Amino acid sequence: MILQDNIFLSIVFLTFGLSAFIQVFYYLCFYLATGLYRSRGDNKSGAAVSVVICARNEAENLRKFLPAVLEQKYSDYEVIVVNDCSDDDTFDVLGECLTKYSHLRVSTVNKDPKFTHNKKFAQFIGIKAAKNDILLFTDADCQPASDRWLAEMTSHFDESTDFVLGYGGYFKGKGLLNKYIRYDSMTIAMQYLGMAVRGIPYMGVGRNLAYRRAVFFRNKGYGSHYNLISGDDDLFVNHNATKKNTCVEFRREAHTRSVPAATISEWFKQKRRHLTTARYYKFGNRLLLFIEPLSRTFFYVSLAILLAYELLLPYVASVFGIRLIIQLIVFALIRKKLEEPGLVFYSLFFDIFSPLITGIVYASNLRNRSDKRRWK
Q: Do 256 and 346 share a structural domain?
């Protein structure tokens, strides 16, 4: 038999089988949990909430999206916008909103040539200004999917809950870049939401994240990762969220949508910034996140080799088919749950190349670790 005579092809076939098994494990154990999850929130409104939004030169986005935050169907909440050194029309836009909404509060950070800071400083100003213990975070370029966003995201808070992880997607647009950005956001979400459902919360996204103010100060805020460009959301969750104190909420009414990058260069910069925090995750989380794309890479590379040698094609086709069916079912469930239309077909191709794309972005971070205090 050819496998007995060729050690290389034997290793390739074993690699193919093992990597397929690992992939199926991730899909069935973690990703499917996102697709099948049913919210346990009690939908009770009433707890006082502070929504915190940091903005630097976001006048147009605030004009467009802030009213949706200020007009939530919720009885007791305030919205704090931190105007961080803006030199556009942000001041005027917020001034107009202040005359219409009594629950809007504005904190202003003025420019100081002797002091540069990242977004975490602005975030800290907003947290410090908050009157309420429950904090809900989003960005200036985000729009809640409904006027029930605040109620749904805070419905899980009880004596044992400190964190609620939500879904922050991107607006649907034209072009392949938009589809990839939405695919990337969806697959990241099916990881962090699915792992949280399984009791392994490792990150959240600042576009849609809630936690207690008391937890922030009890754990000394952003602590050792204050100087990093990112981490106000994922690292804070990674270091402080546990199986017992974390819930997830991604009913449709609880989603947010953000403005996606318009160019590859803009997206690349955003992705680089997001990946600066990965190496600071807990070791177990890093291991889980590393094994999946690595096994996917081995799966497709070994598949290509086996097809090229036309080796054991019926077995290869069976293994590939089983994984493909599971992948399509899970993607279809998650696409529906997270309201990301038109991605299932493209996901088959993005699934092949995304580990390489992420690897390139991550490698560029290792080569260039400057701009640690850049805001965004």
A: no
